[in-house]
Write a structure and sequence with these properties.
Elements lengths: L12 E5 L3 H12 L3 E6 L3 H5 L4 E4 L1 H9 L3 H4 L4 E3 L1 E6 L4 E6 L5 H5 L9 E5 H14 L3 E5 L10 E4 L6 H5 L3 E19 L5 E7 L2 E9 L2 E9 H9 L2 H11 L5 E5 L4 E11 L2 E2 L2 E3 L5 E2 L7 H20 L8 H27 L7 H13 L1 H13 L1 H5 L2
Parallel strand pairs: 1-2, 1-9, 2-8, 5-11, 9-17
Antiparallel strand pairs: 3-7, 4-7, 5-6, 10-13, 10-14, 10-15, 11-12, 12-13, 15-18, 16-17
Helix pairs in contact: 1-6, 1-10, 10-11, 12-13
């Protein structure tokens, strides 16, 4: 997505509310498409960067970052994983996904010379790169840490999170429910796993992701009933490591806590409609899913990619700015709905010991283990989004 030569005052003007990972990227794709952009957030740059968490990036996100010229800047902070082990702890069954299961386009991409199934990226280096890119873009006016007087714009983009004040002010409703599970995130040093190996453990109390950060450091995303997670969060380090070791496969041994465990509730949310006159909802302002499979941020960034394509077509004169929100909503609803339904189905199918469901899980894992084509289709849906798999 090359930058246009100039941004005349007649270029359409957009305001992006929210300068987190999705909002900052949305501002960049619109500026590169020829728009003038106001990027606004009540938090300072230090506050925006101060989160202890990591993201799993798939190939759809890699493509977007490549188009924006950000991939090379992020490479030093990326931890690739070349193997993903899917383990059903109740059935004691395991299926491994490797680079051989990737779609051919992902496998042959010059940016994936390492044959990575995906990458883990920590929040702070991501925000450092994004904010540096935003500040270097002449078409973006960045307003952080203070309220900004409202101005008339051609398009308002709500990228201000799942509590989105912008969405509420517009009267758009969010539909959803809270899971009985919460999630606990913590970074630890582990023995027993290769440094480029990721794990998705399905346990009766909920999914448990083990994500490599480089060397022997790993990010854990532990799903369980919220009351149990709050007890774990309050434990001292030694007691927490004892409980953690019992939850991990025998091959994995936790040695040291890198940071403090943090528990948070998990919900399924979908705002509808995704747009209103002059306004569109992007990222977690529009949707939120269970973190199983690491789909959340990648789904948000496919929103950003769709916005970039439409912003470019709008500047080219294909349609007026007033038509962009409705076109965006039509383009995004199917991908969003399929991912929300798929992640919810995974949680409901695998987070239990229901006797009626165990044979179905056994069958699914057996088919995945025996049929390379089924593994490839499954990994493509996770890596590039279900709509690309369906050709939609």
């Amino acid at each position: 997505m090359p930058a246009p030569p100039s941004h005349p005052s007649a270029a359409p003007l957009a305001r992006v509310n929210g300068a987190g990972p999705s909002g900052a990227l949305a501002a960049l794709v619109m500026a590169r498409a020829g728009w003038r952009v106001q990027l606004v957030d009540p938090l300072s740059s230090q506050q925006l960067s101060a989160r202890s968490r990591a993201y799993a990036l798939t190939h759809s996100s890699r493509e977007l970052l490549e188009q924006l010229g950000l991939w090379a800047d992020l490479l030093p902070a990326l931890a690739p994983f070349r193997r993903l082990d899917l383990c059903d702890r109740a059935l004691h069954r395991q299926v491994a996904f490797t680079a051989d299961d990737l779609p051919s386009a992902a496998l042959t991409s010059p940016a994936n010379g390492s044959g990575a199934v995906g990458w883990i990226l920590q929040h702070r280096p991501l925000m450092d790169v994004l904010l540096r890119a935003v500040r270097s873009e002449s078409a973006i006016a960045l307003h952080l840490g203070a309220p900004m007087d409202p101005t008339s714009v051609d398009l308002l983009v709500a990228a201000d999170g799942h509590h989105s004040p912008t969405r509420r002010a517009a009267g758009l409703r969010g539909w959803g429910f809270s899971y009985r599970q919460g999630c606990l995130t913590v970074q630890v040093r582990l023995r027993g796993s290769a440094p480029d190996q990721a794990w998705e453990l399905f346990r009766p109390e909920g999914p448990f992701a083990v994500l490599p950060l480089g060397g022997d450091a790993f990010q854990l995303v532990w799903s369980a009933p919220m009351a149990r997670l709050q007890r774990l969060e309050a434990m001292d380090g030694a007691a927490f490591l004892d409980v953690l070791s019992a939850a991990l496969p025998d091959a994995l041994q936790a040695d040291v806590l890198i940071d403090r465990p943090q528990a948070f509730p998990v919900s399924w949310e979908l705002a509808w409609p995704l747009q209103r006159r002059g306004l569109l909802l992007l990222g977690e302002a529009a949707h939120r899913c269970h973190p199983v499979g690491g789909q959340g941020l990648n789904l948000c960034w496919r929103d950003v990619a769709a916005l970039g394509v439409l912003a470019e077509r709008c500047v080219a004169g294909c349609f007026p700015p007033s038509a962009l929100p409705a076109r965006y909503a039509r383009r995004r609803w199917l991908d969003i709905l399929l991912v929300l339904l798929a992640t919810d189905a995974l949680v409901r199918l695998f987070s239990n010991r229901q006797p009626l469901l165990l044979p179905l899980r056994q069958l699914l894992l057996t088919l995945l283990g025996r049929w390379p084509l089924l593994r490839r289709l499954s990994l493509q849906a996770m890596s590039e989004g279900p709509c690309r798999l369906l050709g939609a």
